[in-house]
Write a structure and sequence with these properties.
The chain has 333 residues and is of the alpha/beta class. It has 14 helices and ten strands.
C-alpha cells in the first residue's frame, strides 16, 4: 500500500493532475467515479489566499467523497506561501501540495511554479517553511529542471525529501519544453531508484493510454502515475488503465450515450458550481475529447463551443444523442 505520510492512496495509485480551469469539483467528481485514486485541485495563488480573494478561496472547497485530496498552492514569496499553506490546511484536505512545475509565462517568469527551478536554494527553503507551517503531509509537483542544462531533479528530490515532503510528482519535461516533445522518464526513474529516496515518486507526462501506463509502470518502477491532459473530457482513462492492469485486456470505450450523459452531468455541475457564464466557458475545453472519434461531428462541436445559453447546450446534447445513439456505436479512443 502506497502512503503519502499516513494517508493510504492505493497499491499503485492513479492521480488526477492539478490543472488550472480543469480539475475543479465537477470534473473531479467524474474522475473519482471512474477510478482516480487521488484528487488534486486547481492551483491556488498564495497571494489570492492571504488577501481573501473570492476566486482563490472558492478553490479550497471540496466534497468528502473526493478524499484523499490535495490542495495545491503556488507563489514566489516564502512568507506568503507559508501563510497560504496554513490557510489551506485549515480547509482540512488530506494533503497540501506545492506547485513547482507550472510553465506558463505569467507564473514561471515571476519566480513561481517552474520559475523556482532557477533558484533551488529558495525552493528548498520555501518547502521547509511550508512543511513546518502545516500538520498535513506536504507534496511537491515539479519538472526535471528549467532547461536541458539544469536537470537537477535527482538532487532536488533528495533535498526536498530531507526538509520533509511526503511524496513528489515529476513531470518528465523541462520548463523550456512546456508540453512539447516527448517526456523523459529516465530521470524520473533515477529519482525513484536513488537509494536515499524513501518517499513515493509519481511519474507524469504522456500517459495517454492503458498500454503506455502499463509499459511505464513496468519500465520505470514509479509508485504511481499522475494523469493530466489525457483525462480532459475523458475521465474514463482511469478505469481503462485499471482494467488493463488487472486483466491485460482493453476495456470497451464508452458508448455515445455514456459520453453524452457524462458531458451533460459535467455541464450541470459546472453551472451549479461556477454560475452560468463560467460554467459555459470552462466546460468548452472538454467537448472535443468527450466526442473524439465521432465521424461528421464538426457541426455539433462548433455549436457546443459557441453556445452562450445553457438551453442551447442541452438541446445540442439531446440532438447528438438522438442523431447518433441509435447506432449504439462503441468508439475507439
Amino acid at each position: 500500500m502506497v502512503k503519502i505520510g499516513d494517508v493510504e492512496v492505493g497499491e499503485f495509485p492513479l492521480l488526477l493532475a492539478p490543472m488550472e480551469d480543469v480539475s475543479d469539483p465537477p470534473f473531479r467528481a467524474l474522475c473519482k467515479e471512474n477510478g482516480a485514486d487521488v484528487m488534486y485541485t486547481e492551483f491556488i495563488s498564495s497571494e489570492g489566499l492571504i488577501r481573501d480573494a473570492a476566486k482563490s478561496v472558492q478553490k479550497l472547497d471540496f466534497f468528502e467523497y473526493e478524499r484523499p485530496l490535495g490542495i495545491q498552492i503556488f507563489g514566489d514569496e516564502i512568507s506568503s506561501m507559508r501563510e497560504a499553506a496554513a490557510i489551506t490546511a485549515e480547509a482540512n484536505p488530506d494533503i497540501v501540495d506545492i506547485n513547482y512545475g507550472c510553465p506558463v509565462k505569467k507564473v514561471a517568469c515571476k519566480g513561481a511554479g517552474a520559475g523556482i527551478l532557477l533558484d533551488i536554494p529558495k525552493m528548498v527553503a520555501m518547502t521547509k517553511e511550508i512543511v513546518e507551517a502545516v500538520d498535513k503531509p506536504v507534496t511537491v509537483k515539479t519538472r526535471l529542471g528549467w532547461d536541458d542544462n539544469t536537470k537537477y531533479i535527482v538532487e532536488v528530490a533528495e533535498r526536498l525529501q530531507d526538509v520533509g515532503i511526503q511524496a513528489i510528482s515529476i513531470h518528465g519535461r523541462t520548463r523550456k519544453q512546456m508540453y512539447k516533445g516527448e517526456a523523459d522518464w529516465s530521470l524520473i526513474a533515477e529519482v525513484k531508484n536513488n537509494p536515499r529516496m524513501k518517499i513515493p515518486v509519481f511519474g507524469n507526462g504522456d500517459i495517454d493510454s492503458p498500454q503506455r501506463a502499463l509499459d511505464y509502470r513496468n519500465k520505470y518502477g514509479v509508485d504511481g502515475l499522475m494523469i493530466g491532459r489525457a483525462s480532459i473530457g475523458y475521465p474514463w482513462i482511469f478505469r481503462e488503465i485499471k482494467h488493463y492492469f488487472k486483466t491485460g485486456e482493453l476495456l470497451e470505450a464508452p458508448s455515445l450515450v455514456e459520453r453524452v450523459e457524462a458531458c451533460r452531468r459535467h455541464f450541470e455541475m459546472a453551472l451549479d458550481w461556477k454560475g452560468e457564464r463560467l460554467g459555459i466557458n470552462e466546460t468548452r475545453r472538454h467537448y472535443t475529447n468527450y466526442f473524439k472519434g465521432i465521424p461528421n461531428f464538426k457541426e455539433y462541436r462548433t455549436r457546443l463551443v459557441t453556445a452562450d445559453d445553457p438551453k442551447e447546450v442541452y438541446a445540442t446534447l439531446k440532438e447528438i444523442e438522438s442523431q447518433f445513439a441509435e447506432t449504439e456505436m462503441l468508439l475507439p479512443y
